[in-house]
Amino acid sequence: MSGPALTLPGDPPGGRRAVGMWGIGVAVYFVAVTFRTSLGVAGLDAVERFDINASALSTFSILQLLVYAGMQIPVGLLVDRLGTKKVLTIGAVLFTVGQLGFALAPSYGMALASRALLGCGDAMTFITVLRLGTRWFPARRGPLIAQIAALFGVAGNLVSTVLISRTLHGLGWTATFAGSAVAGAVVLVLVLLFLRDHPEGHEPPPAGHVGFAYVRKQIALSWSEPGTRLGMWVHFTTQFPAMVFLLLWGLPFLVEAQGLSRATAGELLTLVVLSNMAVGLVYGQVIARHHGARAPLALGTVGVTALLWGATIAYPGDHTPMWLLITLCVVLGSCGPASMIGFDFARPANPPERQGTASGIVNIGGFTASMTTLLAIGLLLDATGDNYRIAFASVFVLEALGVVQILRLRARTARRERERLVASRVEVVHVPA
Fold first, then answer.
1. CA angle 227–136–117, rounded 5-degree value
2. Distance (Å, rounded) from C-alpha 355 to C-alpha 418?
């Protein structure tokens, strides 16, 4: 039986102003993703510029993701304590300086330091934008708002694959990366001038004393929820194949192993991004209406991704046919939207004051898997003389680990959600008229 959507007491009203505030946060995330993924189309140029091998090239992305993953829980705590405006301001400053430093770096070491700084700023964006959405929109809009935020992040990836890849070969390394850093300065100004943490009348409770005991309690309570842990493993298992492909190894694989031109390889990377945008809209609508579809969508995405990944690297002959590469890229586009399902497990499992911390724990998952796989592929390529079949097979190890954990936690999370639903209904019944 269906009826009008329930608006909980204290639920933010949404509306045009909410869209405007949230839009500023999304713009910051858009620029952060553009900077994060810009190396994905510049990997071969970086090899030439810094005279490095595959392992050293993968270190760029590994260090960036290591910083990103390591910052997730601290950032979640910062968001819970300081609010969205302050955290986004710090993030925008850091990733802008990092991108500019990468443009001007005279050596491999300086370039590494710049990517680490960029990763630190990037880490402060996504879970902050998720919190901004919960502060400005009703809870029932959460899944769709999160998917749309991720969709704009994917658009930042599209800028990398289309615009930066072209300007890189037209204007050169320094002009391209330094010019793109201007976008970071623009969103920083928008945040400073216009962003507000929450609507009037929806101020969060005053913050108490911050100390080690508080931090430990926030993390422990978030981790104790099966939904938080399941969300982390869903994010871990679904996100990393596409992340590895887009962030670094897709272009070299398509050019060096498949013999495609850089232009054609760039078009295939763009196809991944476009597929991501389309699938994200579908997944967001489905999950908003049918919460029970979360686990089947996540597991189905993992299964289809593994099937196409395996078919691509196991195809007999020197080169995989174009129709199979296209199919793989379309399927990889579903990995990002599927990873967002992890937040839809953690969100109802934690109260508002722990949303940032819980989101940080979830976000660690996919980036840890991506970092591990980036390193494994780089090492295996160097060890096997650039054998992409062997190197890319490392993906299956982490997928298997993640699926086992998802299946282990799925029933426990469902029971916990039913208990919460029953408790909330009892509470609503006893609210005085």
1. 70
2. 20
Tell me: the pLDDT tens digits for 295-307? Answer: 999 999 999 999 9
Torsion of CA 309, 315, 320, 325, to 10 degrees: -30
Within 8 A by CB and 6+ apart from 415, the residues are: none
Q: Which segments of 347-394 does DSSP mark as H helices, in order?
A: 355-384, 388-392
132 contacts 78 by C-beta, under 8 angstroms: no
- In the structure, how many helices (H) and strands (E) does the chain have? 19, 0
For every residue of 100-167, DSSP letters joined together read HHHHH--SHHHHHHHHHHHHHHHTTTHHHHHHHHHHHS-GGGHHHHHHHHHHHHHHHHHHIIIIIHHH
> Class assignment of domain 16-197+222-420?
mainly alpha
With bands split at pLDDT 50, 70 and 90, how would you rate the model's confidence at 38? confident
pTM for the structure as a whole: 0.77
Burial of 107: CB neighbours in 10 Å, binned 0-12, 13-18, 19+ = exposed
Length of the chain measured in residues: 433
Residues 6+ away with beta carbon under 8 Å from 359: 76, 127, 130, 131, 343, 346, 347
Q: Within a 10 A sphere around the Cβ of 432, how many other Cβ atoms? A: 3
CA end-to-end distance (rounded Å), the chain: 24
For residues 102 and 118, the answer to whether their CB atoms sit within 8 Å is: yes
Q: How is residue 261 annotated by DSSP? A: -
Helices (H), ranges, 38-125 = 43-50, 54-82, 84-104, 108-122
Give just the sign of the alpha carbon dihedral 74, 123, 334, 141: positive
- Compute the distance between CA of residue 214 and CA of residue 160 in angstroms, rounded to an integer: 40
Mention every residue, 6+ apart, whose C-beta is less than 8 A from residue 350: 221, 222, 225, 227, 228, 357, 358
Does residue 431 surpass a pLDDT of 60? Answer: no
